[in-house]
């Protein structure tokens, strides 16, 4: 498990990094918002532990930026603020949990394990191909972190093809998968229209390949 700790108190940071190491977790450290954002955008983490009060900025600012980029990594906030209003604010901005200072390291580790278990289950519902990340539960698709506006039919086609990447599907097969009552006929171009619209909305239209005389497939590239 790879953890990012964003904490500007060097003593606390060192204590937590030692706790993580002793618990067999790999951890990176950032001491401010800029370093934290750079780390999040340059590598993948299983969990982000974010201090509420950072020098010149608050952890909430980093949390907001992380979520605006479409990054869904679980975030555990560490805070000395113990008011319901502030905790609600953090949760509304996309925090997954919070822990009030001072805290026992045993409780921190327990909260971390709970969040990572939940994330593991969530990842089973996330399909990634190329720059696309599709969440089957939330029914949302992100392309390079940007939320795509897809119709229900477009989402269903893309989900089916991403689940079965590199497999070629005929128009008839795609029609059956998205709507058994669509009334597909050999002369219908409904699937072609949906594919064309999806291509217009994604950053790499070549991700969906036309196999002439057969149908379409999503390439794992």
Mean pLDDT: 87
**Secondary-structure element series:** EHEHEHEHEHEEEEHHHEE
The portion of residues assigned to helices is 40-55%
Q: What is the CATH architecture assignment of the largest domain? A: 3-Layer(aba) Sandwich
Q: What is the CATH superfamily label of the largest domain?
A: Response regulator
Largest sheet: 5 strands, parallel
Structural class: alpha/beta
What is the count of distinct domains? 2
Strand content: 15-25%
Main-sheet strand order equals 2-1-3-4-5
Number of helices: 8
Principal-axis shape equals elongated
CATH class of the largest domain: Alpha Beta
The termini sit apart by 26 Å
Q: What's the total count of β strands?
A: 11
Describe what you observe in this structure.
There is one protein chain. The protein has 221 residues and is an alpha/beta fold. It folds into 2 domains: 2-123, 3-Layer(aba) Sandwich (Rossmann fold), CATH 3.40.50; 127-218, Winged helix-like DNA-binding domain superfamily/Winged helix DNA-binding domain (Arc Repressor Mutant, subunit A, Orthogonal Bundle), CATH 1.10.10. It is 42% helix and 21% strand. It is built from 8 helices and 11 strands. It has helices spanning 10-22, 33-42, 59-68, 84-92, 105-123, 152-163, 171-178, 190-201, and strands spanning 2-6, 26-30, 47-51, 75-79, 97-100, 126-129, 132-135, 140-143, 146-147, 208-211, 215-218. The strands form 3 sheets. Strands 2-1-3-4-5 form a 5-stranded parallel beta sheet, with helices on both faces. It has a 4-stranded antiparallel beta sheet with strand order 6-7-8-9, with helices on one face. A hairpin with a 2-residue loop joins strand 6 (126-129) and strand 7 (132-135). It is elongated. The two termini are 26 Å apart. Residues 180-187 have low confidence and may be disordered.
